[in-house]
Write a structure and sequence with these properties.
By secondary structure, this protein is α/β, with parallel strands linked by helices. It has 19 helices and 14 strands. Bound molecules: nicotinamide-adenine-dinucleotide.
């Protein structure tokens, strides 16, 4: 099977699209990527990955040099260049929790007008079930090539922090299709991966859309399950860390995504959960909508619980208290602060009058942009200077290497709240810290 030389376009070069464009070049294709944000286009063209993603920038530079990857602000160029167009624009949370599909529609509309010969558009953005089919009609009506233009949907499962590895070696490829012609074209594009044993699953459009959104919902359920158990542990005086460890050894349960703590955030899980909830309600599947509401509630409840613990440790009020926060990215391995649990907690503590100083190995610029009120520290030590309480909110590995005795020398009070439940509490206690671990109090 032919494995190289396909001419592809990528529309939208955010976290998903830039990674996808780079990785499609890496597996041998010629890629032209476009975005309405000309600053992103300029940076990417200059070899700068404008967000933190391990391994992405070297590959970007490699393929700018190889000539297999180019960027443009003109979608007309992309339409003319490629036979397969990947749609990677955002689907943020809209009103009532529904996915805002306006970027998807607008990108498709702009592309369609230039499609004068047959091609395949492949949606990769996360959308609720029932989105693609009417979009396919819309594109065919708008494109000069009419019925020669097809739409498939291939949701993306990459994890920020592992995006390159996940894109190059996905654990499965899911394709929602409505014709054999699309199957053939997709098999050609993904031949380097399919021939290497990556499972390729072809299905109808609705099932493909549902695979992504239900996978994210499952992960959210699992995280909220252990966090609900954390609440029970707090009530009964049990230890959720030990509970999770013991549950995780059961192969039917497994230990991944069973870490208790501050819960999930980021640009995907929360909004996908709410979008799925809204879709389930519209479809009349109230039980799923109710389940997902509970999952969301449990997740957000952990943030409130951490603030309560901080307030309590500060003697009942955070007003005027110095709070040092370790970690603001929504999870380690990324600089993404979209719906970051830490940033939410920081913002709410600031509103209560706390003086919040944050540290993060890579997410400081994004945190400062998202909440200019927060003070930013260049090191953990600087963040902790004079602190009344230290909060561990994003579990970067660096924080596990902190010397509690050395840090104890700079704080005002040795009070630690470990909201990610991974620090070595005994060694902190030995160094004179009063340690609270979420789910163990
Ligand atoms: P993002 O906001 O980082 O990127 C979206 C990009 O699309 C932006 O650069 C924006 O300027 C661009 N865009 C918007 N309208 C456009 C148009 N008309 N033409 C060209 N470009 C346009 O979002 P993201 O995190 O990359 O997510 C994109 C989609 O991928 C979402 O549906 C998301 O749920 C899904 N997804 C994301 C991830 C992830 O880890 N970030 C993983 C899997 C799936």
């Amino acid at each position: 099977m032919e494995t190289t030389g396909q001419r592809l376009s990528v529309i939208g070069i955010g976290y998903l699209g830039l990674t996808h464009a780079v990785c499609m070049a890496e597996i041998g294709h010629d890629v032209l990527a476009t975005d309405i944000d000309s600053e992103k286009v300029a940076k990417a063209s200059a070899g700068e990955a404008f967000f933190y993603e391990p391994g992405l920038e070297p590959l970007l530079r490699k393929h700018l040099e190889s000539g297999r990857l180019r960027f443009t602000s003109a979608i007309a160029d992309a339409a003319e260049f490629a036979h397969v167009h990947f749609l990677c624009v955002g689907t943020p949370q809209g009103t009532d929790g529904r996915a805002d599909l306006s970027y998807v529609r607008s990108a498709l509309d702009s592309l369609a007008g230039y499609l004068s010969s047959g091609c395949l558009i492949v949606g990769k953005s996360t959308v609720p079930p029932g989105t693609a089919r009417p979009l396919a009609e819309r594109v065919r009506a708008l494109a000069p090539a009419g019925d020669e233009v097809e739409l498939a949907w291939s949701p993306e499962f990459l994890r920020e922090g592992f995006a390159v590895a996940d894109s190059l070696r996905p654990d499965r490829l899911v394709f929602g299709v409505s014709s054999e012609r699309a199957v053939v074209r997709l098999r050609e594009v993904f031949a380097p991966q399919l021939d290497n044993g990556v499972p390729g699953l072809f299905m109808d459009l609705e099932t493909a859309e549902l695979v992504k959104i239900s996978a994210n919902a499952f992960l959210a359920v699992k995280i909220s399950y252990i966090n609900a158990m954390a609440e029970v542990c707090e009530a009964v005086g049990a230890d959720v860390g030990k509970l999770a460890q013991a549950l995780g050894y059961d192969e039917r349960i497994g230990s991944r995504f069973l870490g208790p703590g501050l819960g999930f955030g980021g640009g995907c899980l929360p909004k996908d959960l709410r979008s799925f909830r809204a879709a389930a309600r519209e479809l009349g599947v109230g039980s799923v909508a109710d389940l997902l509401s509970t999952v969301d509630e449990i997740n957000l409840g952990r943030r409130t619980r951490v603030i309560e613990l901080a307030r309590k440790s500060a003697g009942g009020s955070l007003a005027g208290k110095r709070v040092a926060v370790l970690g603001v990215a929504f999870k380690p391995g990324t600089d993404d602060v979209r719906d970051s649990p830490s940033l939410d907690v920081c913002g709410r503590m600031s509103e209560e009058g706390a003086i919040v100083t944050v540290h993060d190995p890579v997410a400081m610029p994004n945190a400062a942009r998202a909440n200019p009120v927060l003070r930013c520290a260049a090191s953990v030590r600087e963040a902790a200077e004079g602190a009344d309480v230290v909060l561990h909110l994003t579990e970067w590995a660096d924080y596990r290497a902190i010397d509690p005795a050395a840090l104890g020398a700079v704080v005002s009070r040795r009070v630690l709240i470990d909201a990610r439940c991974v620090l070595d509490a005994p060694s902190w206690r030995e160094a004179g810290w009063d340690v609270t671990v979420l789910g163990q109090s």
